[in-house]
Design brief:
Layout lengths: L6 E6 L6 H15 L5 E7 L5 E2 L5 E2 L3 E2 L6 E6 L12 H10 L3 E6 L3 H7 L7 E2 L6 H7 L4 E2 L5 E4 L2 E4 L4 H14 L1 H11 L17 E2 L5 H12 L7 H8 L3 H12 L3 H18 L4 H8 L4 H12 L3 H11 L8 H5 L8 E2 L18 H6 L4
Helix pairs in contact: 1-5, 5-6, 7-8, 10-11
Length: 370
């Protein structure tokens, strides 16, 4: 396959690919070229046939995977069929063929299932769309699945979470290839967040937890969601519905697949993020969200998002064009404020479905403000 000079980015496409998994990263690389990058984009399929995307658009290709010589980056987009049936043999064969010819191999969303099917994720850390992380772990037990990461790099393979996380990953690759300034210009031109760190939680607002079946647990959830600033403890939440702390812990595990400790922490985290997004200071956000102190909130941010509260706030300030070089138009842009719904309570944050169930009740009971 003939290609232009520069860093060759090859998208390996197939019938049923998510259009945004291709278009999002491709736009990032193409936009980077406007600022002096040297990416050359091409598209291949296992046998050289055009691919039909998830939106019905027919995507022509430049050739077959076997025709590709040396390449900088191979991108494998996701597709719904990858999680509902066996990965086509021709796709896994194409991935195995291209891997040694590339400097790095990247998957977007459920594209990780294709990499796993090719045997390339065995013994490696990887992520995928949160909704399918459990399936990936069960289907491929040798893969170290990280369900809450936006993207994970392990050696020469990088896997990303669902759909729009591919844009975050592409920005990170641009930054690595051409520096932070160029990547920041790309993010600003595309009006996207510059840039969510790979370790940040992929659960984004609006985030909705399934309603508890029992009215008693619903009452606890609604209380925490509506008033995260209260000093919620094991005893106080259990007493709210007249049960023991251990019984409440069992209810959370059975109905919400998480622990009370993680649930309260996640709600406070989402409230704090919304406050920081709106321009509140770190100390004010910590108090209003119920963390009690800036240090407690900092530890939670670093553990959950991989970034400090001040770093998180600074990233949003950059995305808003709040730096001195921003134009008036950029400065008027604001990111969406988090709007999370739990059990019909507007504006109340909640946790995702893959929260760590191993967190002990004792930690919740003994840690003030968590």
């Amino acid at each position: 396959m003939e290609r232009e000079p520069g860093r060759h980015i090859l998208f390996l496409v197939y019938d049923g690919i998510k259009m945004l998994d291709v278009a999002g990263p491709a736009e990032v690389f193409a936009e980077a070229n406007l600022f002096g990058a040297d990416y050359a984009l091409s598209y291949a399929s296992p046998f050289g046939a055009a691919a039909v995307t998830s939106v019905g658009l027919r995507l022509p290709v430049d050739g077959a995977a076997a025709d590709v010589a040396e390449v900088d980056t191979v991108v494998v987009p996701g597709g719904d069929a990858l999680v509902t049936r066996a990965v086509p043999a021709e796709l896994t064969e194409a991935i195995r063929l291209l891997h040694p010819r590339a400097r790095r191999l990247v998957s977007i969303c459920t594209g990780s299932f294709a990499l796993a099917g090719a045997g390339l994720l065995d013994g490696r850390r990887a992520t995928t769309h949160w909704q399918h992380a459990g399936l990936l772990a069960r289907a491929h037990p040798d893969v170290q699945v990280r369900p809450d990461a936006l993207f994970v790099e392990d050696g020469d393979i990088v896997t990303s979470a669902g759909v729009s996380a591919g844009i975050d990953l592409a920005l990170a690759l641009v930054e690595r290839d051409h520096g932070a300034d160029l990547a920041r210009n790309v993010a600003r031109n595309l009006v996207v967040f510059m840039q969510r760190p790979g370790g940040q939680s992929q659960f984004s607002a609006p985030l909705e937890v399934r309603p508890p079946r029992t009215p008693a647990l619903r009452s606890v959830v609604d209380l925490v969601a509506a008033q995260p600033q209260l000093p919620h403890t094991a005893g106080s939440l259990a007493a709210h519905i007249g049960v023991s702390p251990r019984h409440l812990a069992r209810m959370f595990t059975a109905e919400l697949d998480t622990t009370p400790a993680k649930f309260v922490e996640q709600i406070r985290l989402e409230h704090a993020k919304a406050l920081l997004d709106s321009g509140r200071g770190v100390a004010e956000a910590a108090r209003a969200a119920g963390f009690g102190s800036s240090e407690t909130m900092r530890r939670t941010f670093v553990a959950r998002l991989g970034v400090s509260p001040s770093g998180y706030r600074a990233r949003f300030a950059t995305a808003r064009g709040g730096d001195k070089g921003g134009t008036a138009a950029e400065s008027r842009w604001r990111p969406r404020t988090a709007e999370v719904r739990i059990c019909g309570v507007p504006g109340s944050p909640g946790g995702g479905p893959d929260l760590d169930r191993q967190e002990g009740w004792e930690a919740f009971h003994s840690t003030p403000g968590i």
